[in-house]
Specification:
Blueprint: H1 11-14, H2 21-40, E1 46-50, E2 57-66, E3 77-79, H3 80-84, E4 95-100, H4 107-134, E5 140-148, E6 152-156, E7 162-166, E8 181-192, E9 195-201, H5 205-215, H6 217-220, E10 224-232, E11 236-243, H7 250-255, H8 260-268, E12 273-278, H9 283-290, E13 298-302, E14 307-312, H10 314-321, H11 326-335, E15 338-343, H12 363-371, H13 377-381, H14 385-392, H15 396-410
Parallel strand pairs: 2-3, 11-12, 14-15
Antiparallel strand pairs: 1-2, 2-4, 5-6, 5-8, 6-7, 8-9, 10-11, 13-14
Helix pairs in contact: 2-4, 5-8, 9-11
Length: 411
């Protein structure tokens, strides 16, 4: 039978992504039954048959044969005389079965039905996408960059679904162009205006965790557990790991031979420095490991205030703090303690290398002092302001500020 464009394009429905064929058939049948109810008042006595392979449609209507002039409902009954025009052998009480063609509904009804059909299938598809990605929150997805805007990037997955990578969820060193393949973790899934909005992230700790699971079989198999991850995206990350098998070195397994396993992760994260440390319930030891690569002399803990006073030799302070303060900040997040760093003074520790003041004095100023052979605090303080200005060509205000910082160290 002719389907008048309603199912001529059935291929676009039955192969819809994320929707199984029985579901699409069910939607089609419901649309047709709605047409029948509008025309005949009921669909109880109608059978709708949809061929799942090619979309062919058959509608069969059954009415009871009654005596002439005794029909109370033309939608459910048909008079004997009229029925015998089609089949002369019919008797009162028989079932009169006839095929209803789509043409009989009229072109306007068919076009409305087709529009309803498209709308329902699209709505169903959106629901399926939402459910699919809602269950995948925290998983890594791979997609292709499709469009780049100022505040976000549009990424398409393998099935053409739209994923949003906001600028805030990108590593600062990330640079993408259309067609690039990128990896990220499914961060959040919301339904906005009946359309799923899938947010992906490259800065979330879960992204780093999934990368470790991909690169380190022992983590994937559960032999090594990641206890906690803290990150300053693109700068530094600290990962606390623990092994339930004494024969396995968790740190060594994560790093790999000559860094073979962690190298791929670092490259994916735009050269983010990753410190992998052994987890322990001993808080003092945990803080020492978290402040790596600095070597700590002693620690005083205040468990109630969750503060730790850490004492280090002068040459270890800058290592503990790290560039931009990232090391000490991440160590605090990892351990849950507020960490205060103190220089440990001793009789043998009478001078301090100028490099230790890099967090207070600009590097170019320190370089100017070192250029003229002044590389420790006391060597600078031993000279007058005029002499320092003459040797370094620095302005008086700059020299005075440096001297003030250096004197405060010894005071």
């Amino acid at each position: 039978m002719s389907n008048i464009n309603l199912i001529d394009s059935f291929q676009e429905f039955k192969d819809f992504k994320n929707i199984d064929r029985p579901t699409v058939i069910s939607v089609l049948e419901e649309v047709f039954r709605s047409m029948i109810r509008k025309r005949f008042g009921t669909d109880e006595n109608c059978d709708v048959i949809v061929n799942p392979d090619n979309g062919d449609l058959e509608i069969w209507r059954t009415r009871a044969v009654v005596e002439d002039e005794f029909s109370e409902d033309d939608d459910l009954e048909i008079e004997l005389a009229e029925a015998r025009k089609v089949d002369p052998d019919l008797e009162i009480g028989d079932d009169f079965i006839e095929e209803i063609t789509l043409e009989s509904f009229g072109r306007r009804a068919i076009l409305a039905a087709r529009q309803t059909l498209v709308s329902k299938v699209l709505e169903l598809e959106k629901d399926e996408i939402f459910k699919k990605y809602k269950d995948r929150v925290g998983e890594i997805v791979t997609g292709e960059v499709y469009q780049i805007w100022k505040k976000e990037t549009l990424v398409l997955d393998d099935e053409g679904n739209e994923l949003i990578l906001p600028k805030t969820e990108q590593i600062p060193a990330d640079y993408f162009k259309k067609g690039d393949t990128i990896r990220a973790v499914v961060y959040k899934v919301d339904m906005m205006n009946a359309t799923p909005k899938i947010i992906i992230s490259r800065t979330a700790p879960e992204f780093l965790q999934r990368l470790f699971e991909l690169e380190v079989p022992e983590i994937f198999d559960g032999l090594i557990t990641i206890k906690k991850i803290v990150r300053e995206p693109g700068e530094r990350a600290k990962v606390a790991v623990e092994s339930y098998d004494d024969r396995i070195d968790p740190v060594g397994a994560c790093v790999g031979m000559k860094g073979s396993r962690i190298h791929g992760i670092v490259r994916e994260l735009r050269n983010e420095n990753i410190d992998v440390i052994n987890f322990t319930n001993n808080i003092s030891l945990y803080i020492q490991r978290a402040l790596s690569p600095a070597r700590i002399s002693s620690i005083k803990l205040d468990d109630e205030e969750k503060r730790a006073a850490v004492y280090l030799q002068s040459d270890q302070v800058s290592l503990a703090i790290g560039r931009g303060g990232h090391n000490i900040k991440l160590a605090g997040k990892l351990t849950g303690f507020e960490i205060d760093v103190y220089r440990e003074s001793s009789e043998n520790d009478e001078d301090v290398d100028l490099e230790e003041f890099a967090d207070e004095i600009d590097g170019w100023i320190l370089d100017e002092f070192k250029r003229v052979g002044l590389d420790t605090a006391r060597s600078v303080l031993a000279l007058s302001t005029d002499e320092l200005m003459r040797r370094t060509d620095l302005e008086e205000t700059t020299v005075l500020e440096v001297v003030q910082v250096l004197r405060a160290e010894f005071d």
